[in-house]
């Protein structure tokens, strides 16, 4: 900031060079790590999808059929001439710039391995522009509708697959009895208590549900015959989801529409389930996926049509699916050589193998899903309980205040303990002393729950602390007890924040490897775990094992595919958490 | 018990209500107690096996021994922690050379130079660096960084080496330095900056001459946390650094002054404390053997070191914080 002081002796003259140099140095430092990570991610993606063998024609085909329509949709949704101009300018100018710079580097300096200028354009220009337009487009109504629908389709499918996976280790017959004898009567009593204002019925719901669960475990081996798995899932999961969806719609649109919105996906799912039985597919999983995608989608579509704005956005999934199909047809007809990606359907549905081409991640994915489900339940309950105790139940002063401070310091220190030490705790305490077994899913889940517990607690505390005190005082003034205030006022207000923190912490748990090695998780398993006490492997464990194989096909192909799978799951989880937080912030 | 719809229970003293309140309060307290139990359990688990280990291997021998071979083929176990310490220090110091300057500059940029818009984009993006699973970083180091360094700078580098592992550890710990330092710098009141400008200082002089000294306690505590994280880092070094507990060759410079060539340590495979623990798990895990116990002794050393560093970081942040 040189001054305009025009003194002849140079008083107040300041060199700008140093300041500007420093500013750019610090800017460079800020993006150094991100650029390094970005380059590594580009290479891992190229390896996983075998893009270095993709012909320019192949890239062009999919660019025209898939990327261009998507960008056009975003631009249409944003509906802003300035954005359109900027995006087209970046795409066009970037094309020239990347081609020139890339050729210059290749011819003058060093050849860049496994990268051509088309790929560089895709990653350096097209991907950031697409990300920017996705963001801008999702602010417009059609874009919001389109991405909302897409999110429900993808999220629903992921949820259905995850629930289906859980039934590999949990006995579906016990669940059938527990649902029929425990959950259903308890929910019924609770609903009756709500509607009729009978507090005794509500209080009775919990004990009744508990008795039902006990009865289910006792009766499991007494009852000789059970309905088929497909019927059990239909009765215990599909019907409740459809009913819940129907109730949501009924609130807005009346019974006829609700019956259609809930009944149609249920009918489709049931038909799909029976068709899958005939076709030799895992029928229960097909049923679950169809229900968990169909019902939320139907509810969402009915709401969008009801609101009447941005209905065009509903076409987005068809646009993308159509782009993939047309692209495949063109590639087929043109005879263009296509890449052979490592990360394909076979990779996520097959067991590991000694030969790179047959290697799959399926048992490891199942192991990860089961562990994360257990960790989610454990760390959520413990985290919420602890943070409620620290924030709502303890005074700031006196002996209990001191205890609270000790707990607080202790939690902060636990958060900084290296994860490998938690692994030793799991090995010494859970695996050997308590006899839960070396390398079993239970041991892993308990260890990882303790590992992420401090993070869960700290974020839950922040969420609870951000609930305004006026709400608590208001509830107190109505004569509510402490538990009633917590349950009816504090927790509902803080829930989005708590869920966000928990999901972010789970993202940490799913990538942890060192504790799993310490508790003796299997480096490779060929079958998914069949019970909570069987040996399992997890995605990061499998990646670790493969990374140690010397063959280039493993190093540069199979592991890259595993890394991308893990990162996609992580991005999905963290994206969900961020969406939750944004929605809560917009709501309040 | 009175029915709440007819005559409200203002005293909140009905038996059922009291039972409910007490039950929930107790449940929450039990949850909170689990965090204390965890700390106690870590201590007890580590200590009980470490004590058995130290009975067989005296502490001085453990701390000064220069040979680490828990499961030798031909017999003659040795448990000397010095080679492991050299490995750990190598990784930590090299990583610190990357994460501390870059993290500090990032914090200065975010707090002093960046527009609010740029900050709101950069800050969450930087957190991504800490969120990538460490086994993925290890894979990056082994498969991309090492070949790239080998092709350009260090042709004599071995496949498993300390340098690429340290680079990845450094990048991973950047956000730890930058976020805590940035918090400390943002807490410096604007009056101090305005006073600097009033005296004719440039933005550069205000940033480095006023803001950084005023937030030095926060910056120092962020350094300690980042270093303690680097000490405990496991997967990056396990995947990329290999597992050879080596003592580097001591060379002689002019006048017989002994020195260690950094290239001997950085470009070769090595072993950190965490790698040693992971390597032992390849053997017997049911307990009762000396290598099994040694794992807990190493864990105890690691736990104590990181705990002490965290406490020091807390004390620095608390005691030397300027109150404005």
TrEMBL record, chain A:
Annotated TM spans: 24-46, 58-76, 88-112, 118-137, 149-167, 173-192, 204-224, 230-250, 257-277, 283-302, 314-334, 361-390, 411-430, 436-458, 556-580
Keyword DNA-binding among UniProt keywords: no
Cell compartments where the protein resides: Cell membrane
Stored InterPro entries: MetI-like, MetI-like_sf, Phosphate_PstA
Membrane protein topology class: Multi-pass membrane protein
Lineage: superkingdom: Archaea
Assigned keywords, A-Z: Cell membrane, Membrane, Transmembrane, Transmembrane helix, Transport
A Pfam short name: BPD_transp_1
Listed GO CC annotations: plasma membrane
One of the record's GO molecular function terms: phosphate transmembrane transporter activity
PROSITE patterns tied to this protein: ABC_TM1 (PS50928)
Stored PANTHER family: PHOSPHATE TRANSPORT SYSTEM PERMEASE PROTEIN PSTA (PTHR43470:SF5), PHOSPHATE TRANSPORT SYSTEM PERMEASE PROTEIN PSTA-RELATED (PTHR43470)
NCBIfam families in UniProt: 3a0107s02c
Family stated for the protein in its record: Belongs to the binding-protein-dependent transport system permease family. CysTW subfamily.
Descriptive protein name: Phosphate transport system permease protein PstA
Organism expressing this protein natively: Halorubrum tebenquichense DSM 14210
Automatic annotation (TrEMBL), chain B:
Transmembrane segments: 24-47, 84-108, 128-147, 159-180, 295-317
Taxonomic superkingdom: Archaea
Sequence ranges assigned to domain ABC transmembrane type-1 in this UniProt record: 85-313
Positions in coiled-coil regions: none
GO biological process: phosphate ion transport
Bilayer topology term: Multi-pass membrane protein
Any one of the GO CC terms: plasma membrane
Any one GO molecular-function label of the UniProt entry: phosphate transmembrane transporter activity
Family: Belongs to the binding-protein-dependent transport system permease family. CysTW subfamily.
NCBIfam families (alphabetical): phosphate_pstC
Physiological role: Part of the binding-protein-dependent transport system for phosphate; probably responsible for the translocation of the substrate across the membrane.
PANTHER family, per database record: PHOSPHATE TRANSPORT SYSTEM PERMEASE (PTHR42727:SF1), PHOSPHATE TRANSPORT SYSTEM PERMEASE PROTEIN (PTHR42727)
Name the record gives this protein: Phosphate transport system permease protein
